[in-house]
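Contributing new complexes? Match this layout with H53.
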Amino acid sequence: VEASIPEPLREAWRKYSAHEFTNKDEFERELVRHIETTLARSLYNCDDLAAYSGTALAFRDRLIIEWNRTQQRQTFTDQKRVYYLSLEFLMGRALDNAMLNVGMKDAAREGLQDLGFRIEDVIGQEHDAALGNGGLGRLAACFLDSLATLNYPAWGYGLRYRYGIFKQEIVNGYQMEVPDYWLDNNPWEFPRHDITVDIQFYGHVKKKQDENGKLVASWVEGEVVQAVAYDVPIPGYGTKTTNNLRLWSSKASSGEFDFQKFNAGDYESAVADQQTAETISAVLYPNDNLERGKELRLKQQYFWCAASLYDIVRRFKKTKRAWSEFPDQVAIQLNDTHPTLAIVEMQRILIDIEGLEWDEAWTIVTKTFGYTNHTVLPEALEKWSVPLMQNLLPRHLQIIYDINLYFLQSVEKQFPNNREILSRVSIIEESHPKMVRMAYIAIIGSHKVNGVAELHSDLLKSTLFKDFVDIYGVDRFTNVTNGVTPRRWLHQANPALSSLIAEKLGGHEFLTDLTLLDKLEAFVDDKDFRRQWAHIKSDNKLRLAKLIKDTTGYKVNPESLFDIQVKRIHEYKRQQLNIFGVIHRYLKIKGMSAEERKKVVPRVSVFGGKAAPGYWMAKTIIHLINKVAAVVNNDSDVGDLLKVIFIEDYNVSKAEIICPASDISEHISTAGTEGSGTSNMKFVLNGGLIIGTCDGANIEITREIGDQNIFLFGNLAEDVEDLRHRHFYGDFQLDPALEKVFKAIKDNMFGDAGDFSALTASIEEHGDYYLVSDDFHSYVTTHEMVDEAFLNKEEWLAKSITSVARMGFFSTDRVINEYADSIWNVEPLAVKD
Ligand code: H53
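Output block (do not edit by hand):
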């Protein structure tokens, strides 16, 4: 391509091609230019928001120049690329991250100051890009950061929701949901109106003979909706690589159809079609770890998979390679089962459109895909009803039946006369209605399946996917323990700690090789270092205390022990255990003499997180937390000894303030239920200790930092089944301390007890599925150990520093390299400066 362009033309382009600003003055010039021309503002009417927009546009220009170069480089070298398919990308704010990743934050700070602005105020204007629910979506965002930082040729594919996760408001203690319209004023996306794909739904399948007499299926009629690409540049840290996140937006298929209706005077119906089409990408489903089987959700999934695959295949076909080389050029990773239809769509493209034979096509498919499972919770596992699929995607259902047929035939050969295994592993569940088990398609259609922490991956192999281990052998199943990006979760969220570490280690290299943190251990006993470390923690606590004051009105004492649990509200994550523990503490304080109270370690219990709008029990937990807060925080007997805070609308940008401010944080899921957890890593990386169960990545965190640096409690995963079984047969005794807590609730201490009866009854009467009572004693006594430990400031600091020093394993850079080596077989692209 390059050689076909004549030199004079190239020369002219080179001469005028855009340049990046490289210092403060050039930045200021770009900023003022954008404010005066792009935004049509001036010195006299430029507020913080306009300054934000101008700064973002200036940085966007920089990113897009590098984006172009990166894409050219990747096209010319023509090596294998990774495509990460995820329905969620919980990106948070982009500006601060862009400034830090391109290394121009100081220049921007000074430039903005020259022009009369404070950088913090400017950064604070940005609306979070909240296209995700929780851990799964945030992991995808951390992966994008690491993929770019490590120079992997990689694209993310997702949906451009008009409404991201709802904004949470707390009204009289209840969660209310407010739509999150985030697209006004979003400078980070590039609409590509020229990149569109027509996506078909409904219709029916016709079989006809091709010119060679072969019977081929074709999917005809139905509706067509158009997918339009929007690109978001993803800058790596300290590299020229800027990767792409492509988000699809839906609109009515352009074409005569609408015009015909329009011209026939049927204006309303033409507009209605438009609106129906736009509904597909209108809203993110606000459930985390919970699937509801709604038709629109299935439409979203197919729309996004089909558009992304069309794009990937189009790019591959430009190389004019043989189809057999597809898996050498393309690796596609499925983030959970949400994109499983991509497997079926790929097979459809190969056999129905490209004319390959079934086996040849299927070999290509399985070599291309990898599947990550993030949960063992039954309510999160996707199943789609056969009638629904038949109606929406008739050809795909046929292909699924064929995949199942060939698969079951091979299983039958391997395990003759074993009907049970056939029915257990069949993609089709023989229920009423029949259901398609998406995880099974994902396993059968991929060459590798991974879990996200060791315990989780072991559980997959020994329980959920055991039969598939027997069928395929254990090598198809692997573990890649999650991580977080140290750029956002240390450098950006905690700049003071990042600088202190850099000062000690002689530079910021640890941000791209987190294992270098181990050098910090040499300074554990350094008095001066400890003092600085402690000082940074108190500043971060002050910053959180300010957020708490500004958002809730409550004043908290920053000297108190800050005990934080922020994550989606879910019974398995057990915020109920936490708030019952808080009530227990409150009752204890109330029963103390003045003398005894002097010995109490003052605490602030901080909660935050959203409940799925239809998840009644989770909403009840939020309600209880807020009612307890209202009583405890206004009780003059208690004063600063205990404060309870619910932070409204927990999101990524609030997490950046919250994570650096914990003394202790809570990761207390019932053993065996949390896939990995990733906020546990963020808190420890910022020098907070944790209290947790032996679950998810807590186990590997313990292995890395040492069990003397973590507060573990509760029953083990291996005991859970037996305990549940015993509860089921009536062998259940409510923990005596928990009984007192329930009595306080039932005596209306926190308002009308009726509001909370479902919550207490689920434990007392309905089998305590999440083992709250079984773990309660261990939980409260472990919290007493936390209090005790907090009194010894020096030892606490030593634990904090040692833990950070040993967190090197939990960077998504390590995670991405593991995926690249063991699943994708891709190499980073060499990038010259
Ligand atoms: O994925 C995180 C894990 C976490 C797990 C979470 C998750 C979702 O957020 C949504 C659906 C799902 O299946 C799993 O709950 O334990 O850390 C990233 O792997």
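Reviewers usually confirm one structural detail per submission. For this one: The chain has a mean pLDDT of 96.
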